[in-house]
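Q: Could you write out the predicted structure for this multi-component system? I'm mainly interested in how the pieces pack against one another.
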Amino acid sequence: MSAILAQAGGDAMLGCEPAPADRGAFVDALDFIVSQRESISGGVCIGGPGELLDLGASHMLVSLVAVVAAIAIAVPAGLWLGHRGRGEFLAVSISNVGRAVPSLALLAFFIAFVGIGFTNVALVLTLLAIPPILTNTYVGVRQVDRESVDAARGVGMSEGQIVRRVELPLAIATIFSGIRTSAVAVVATATIAPLGNVQSLGNPILEPQTYGSAGQLGAAIVIALITLATDVGLGLVQRAATPKGLARTSYHTSERRKRLSTIPIPRRTQTP
Amino acid sequence: MSAGPLAQIQIRDRTGEGCVAENGFCPDWIAENLDKYWTPLLEHVYLTVVSVAIGFGIAFSLALLAHRRRWLTGPILGVTGALYTVPSIAAFFLLLPITGRGNTTAIVALVAYTLLILFRNITTGLRNVPPDAVDAARGMGMTPRQILWKVELPLAMPEILAGLRIALTTTIGLATLAFFAGGGGLGEQIYSEKAGTGGLFFKSNVVVAGSLAVALAAVSDLLVLAAQRLALPWRRTLRTA
């Protein structure tokens, strides 16, 4: 039906025109971002703010779900391990293994053996997001001065209160830097989500037969900007979330940090 | 009645062809085609080694520069940090119009990612050198250059090598995406089509190429660790003491 209409109506019906040829790659890519054009294979309108917003919304949704799930799993686990002073080996090796497993391999493994779809892609992204949050939470809690914990115990706080009112606030800056690391990695990796049948800004990159090189480059520009924005935005949140009294006492914590320097703190882990 | 399907399964297992067509995990097929992973593995090693070597050269020079002029540390961290945040797939496509498809694009992007890790670790290492050691060296009449090469850098070595390990494993992971830039590597196998049918992600390829990438990361990590133990004998005595 729509094919017949398109034939009858021609370009006027389609509402967009093929992109002019003979332009620089970057000019062409910017044009892809700001205005619609006919796809390479013809018959469909692609690009422009409308489509990119749709793809971007789907991209951010799957990323958000993954990061929230990772926080829900890794922060309580890290707080508990850190409070009990156990599982240093676990916290360290999880971050090392997490770095060594390529995200493409993990996604491909899930798609091949478990299946495609929103849940599976979100699950893969969650697995990628857990290690930095877990390790940072663990290290953040271990960095809390034992004297503060003893003092809290002395004034009659329960173990749960110590975790919530003493260790969590003192570790929040380190935890947030782990969340920031993970969020940037997840937003970056969501680029390959279309392989698992989830729409994202990676669609133009992975479907050159429809979007062409202008679409690939345009999407790459948008993805780079959206990742930088995530990083900067969460950096501001991190600053706002750090308790005011802690912002200036970096000397004090740096002493403890030196003692724990054998634990690699993955401040920022790079994944696609 | 039930002998029919069973017999079929046995025949399929032996030939391996049915398994491939159904996109299964096929040990027979893998054993027969093991040699086809050799070139991608070598490409992967090549990309990693060249990128980390170039990245180390640049990061090391920048770190020495920042060691002399402290105020440069912030700006260098800012720029390398921004480079590091750009997703690698995006970086490959951003570079394509400038450097074209091929190894160069892949290596330029991979080098950019090693810079932050290596620079941060080298500067941290140099900064954590005990001032007493530097004072003692100055007291013995060493020139600033001698202090740098004979005192500060050896003492900063553990941090530098730790950075090298992170850079290596990270680069091996990122190099799985280098095929988007035409750089080859194991990613091409992971991403490859099912042997006969044209669908993405052939299970056997995913498992073998993915495991090879992880194994490569583990082996390179252990190699640097072993080199560290050999090159820094005083660390061993310190730890046991």
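A: Regarding packing and overall arrangement: The longest helix of chain A spans residues 48-84.
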